[in-house]
Amino acid sequence: MKFIIFGLGNFGSSLGQKLTEQGNEVIGVDNDMNKVDAFKEKISHTVCLDSTDEIIVSGLPLKDTDIVIVAIGEDQGANIMTTAVLKNLEVKRLISRAITPLHETVLQAIGVDDIVHPEEETAERWAKRLCLRGVVDSFELSGQYSIVEVNVPQKYVGKSLQELSFRRKHNLLVLTTIKKEESKNLLGLKQDENKVQGVASPKTVLEENDIMVIYGANKDIKKLLNE
Amino acid sequence: MKFIIFGLGNFGSSLGQKLTEQGNEVIGVDNDMNKVDAFKEKISHTVCLDSTDEIIVSGLPLKDTDIVIVAIGEDQGANIMTTAVLKNLEVKRLISRAITPLHETVLQAIGVDDIVHPEEETAERWAKRLCLRGVVDSFELSGQYSIVEVNVPQKYVGKSLQELSFRRKHNLLVLTTIKKEESKNLLGLKQDENKVQGVASPKTVLEENDIMVIYGANKDIKKLLNE
Ligand SMILES: Nc1ncnc2c1ncn2[C@@H]1O[C@H](COP(=O)(O)OP(=O)(O)OP(=O)(O)O)[C@@H](O)[C@H]1O
Ligand SMILES: Nc1ncnc2c1ncn2[C@@H]1O[C@H](COP(=O)(O)OP(=O)(O)OP(=O)(O)O)[C@@H](O)[C@H]1O
């Protein structure tokens, strides 16, 4: 797919690099030449221009682009101007980053397809992760249900999922387990790697130091962790 | 649980608010009085002080605090100094935000328990979401397996999970479905709300406009979406 990202700060450049690594065609735009140079090997194409200038921006291949992202951060004015310019040039799908609630209201008024809040979205994920002890990572589906990675409690070690009947007894689904495996990194140094053990089946046996990935209502997950 | 967050920018203040909403005791610290005032109703306690000052910081209830987070962003120097001060005061668990790879190396050298990259972590999640068409949101477990929210393909509408046998035919687990329900917001205006339909059972029937949440190997998910 084809992307154009305006603003190569931490969020914009990370997004540009990851999309490029996944095989997409990405144009990274910034008016700071240092940024344009810093990422020219990591993003498919980088270009130096002022994205608030409608005439210059209209010179980009916008008609062929699937998704355009405005990732400019601190300069809310430049972010809003760039969003307005792109809306006017009728790009297929427009995603803008919002910095404050007022900024978000303006973006909604202009009419973007999606709004990103990079810092707030990470804060939400870490708030869950830090609160539930034994939780390695988590992904919340709409407020009351989550997918949570937890260390296998000692009392379940050596038992199979069929024996433990998570769905019947705890109303939870076990998706898989994750095992830590030692591997060597590029410098030949030992490092721990997390290996997902496929899709869980009733015969899967939980072992010491495994991480199990479970899905269910937050209150049921909390109950399990507090037992 | 008890938290202290240094730096009430977007990431720090969002984290402080969410942890407070979840019933934790949070102290939010910033040397900018405007920030301290802005969040005094939303974070349990807010305090104005310069976190690079070891004497002043040692006056905080660090011994009783479970987790300390350094969320200062742009000022890498202040972030590093604050991290060093807290490490010296032997806090129980120290998490710092890293802005650049060099900054991260310094934090690892000082010895923090966890490092957060707010913008990069959100970029990773959006890169997946933007690449797979039909994907509403996704959560990746270690590189090859993901949990993905997808629109129910037309050909599955009206069929039960038992009929579709996702695990046997596609090696995928269906966790649940999400339905859009209309509700009224605080201003009495209609808004769409996503409602998770509990934990899926073999009898669950997929309906038009549902979102189904599936788990499996990325290649198997891609195969399903491309059919
Ligand atoms: N008018 C403009 N045209 C093109 N690029 C711009 C313009 N204004 C700002 N930028 C670029 O946007 C990028 C991101 O913005 P900035 O660094 O201010 O935000 P940030 O909040 O620090 O970003 P992040 O949190 O992602 O690191 C910068 O590299 C900056 O050069
Ligand atoms: N020495 C210090 N003591 C206390 N607070 C500090 C200190 N230095 C900076 N801060 C605060 O840290 C907060 C976050 O830092 P800053 O706003 O520079 O980063 P940011 O990258 O914009 O953050 P975010 O991306 O989370 O919005 C600011 O509110 C600032 O006042």
Written description of the protein model:
The structure is a homodimer of 227-residue chains. The first copy, chain A, has 227 residues and is an alpha/beta fold. Chain A has 2 domains: 2-116, NAD(P)-binding Rossmann-like Domain (Rossmann fold), CATH 3.40.50.720; 122-226, 2-Layer Sandwich (Alpha-Beta Plaits). Helices cover 34% and strands 29% of the residues of chain A. Chain A contains 9 helices and 11 strands. Chain A has a 6-stranded parallel beta sheet, with helices on both faces. In chain A, strand 1 (2-6), helix 1 (10-21) and strand 2 (25-30) form a beta-alpha-beta unit. Chain A starts with a strand and ends with a helix. The model of chain A has no long low-confidence stretch (mean pLDDT 89). Chains A and B meet through helix 1, helix 6, strand 8, strand 9 and strand 10 of A and helix 1, helix 6, strand 8, strand 9 and strand 10 of B. One adenosine-5'-triphosphate binds at residues 6-12, 29-32, 35, 50-52, 72-75, 78 of chain A.
Record keyword descriptors for this entry.
227 residues; Rossmann fold; Alpha-Beta Plaits; 2 domains; 29% strand
Integer average pLDDT of chain A? 89
Helix content of chain A: 25-40%
Name the overall outline of chain A: elongated
> The CATH topology of the largest domain in chain A is what?
Rossmann fold
- How far is the N terminus from the C terminus of chain A? 47 Å
- Percentage of β-strand residues of chain A: 25-35%
CATH-level-2 architecture of the largest domain in chain A = 3-Layer(aba) Sandwich
Count helical runs of chain A: 9
Largest interface: A-B, 53 and 53 residues
